[in-house]
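Lab notes, practical 5.
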Amino acid sequence: MFKVIEGGLGQAAQIDDCSEERRGPSKDDVRREAARRISESGYNMSRIREFATGVPMLASLKYLSLQIDFAAETLSRLDPIPEDFRSDGYWPAG
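Output from the prediction step:
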C-alpha cells in the first residue's frame, strides 16, 4: 500500500501488478512524438535564431510545425490510437 498525497489530503492507493497491462499509446505519447519531429526539423533552433537576430525563419518550417501539430491533434483524438502512430505515414514529410 502506498499513500498518494493530493492537495494535502492523504489517500490510500493500491498498486496492482495487473493494472500495468499495456493499453496502447496515449495522447502524451503522440505529443512526445510530435515534439521530437518538430525538434528534428530544426524548427526550435530556427525560432531561437529568429528571436536573437530578428531574421524571420523559413515559412516552410513554420508550415511544417503547423502540419505536425495538426497530425498530432488528429492522432490523439482517435480511439484507439494506432499502435504504429510513429510511422511516417501519419506525419507530414519534412
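Observations recorded by the TA: Strands lie at 2-6, 9-13. Residues 71 and 91 are 6 Å apart (CA to CA).
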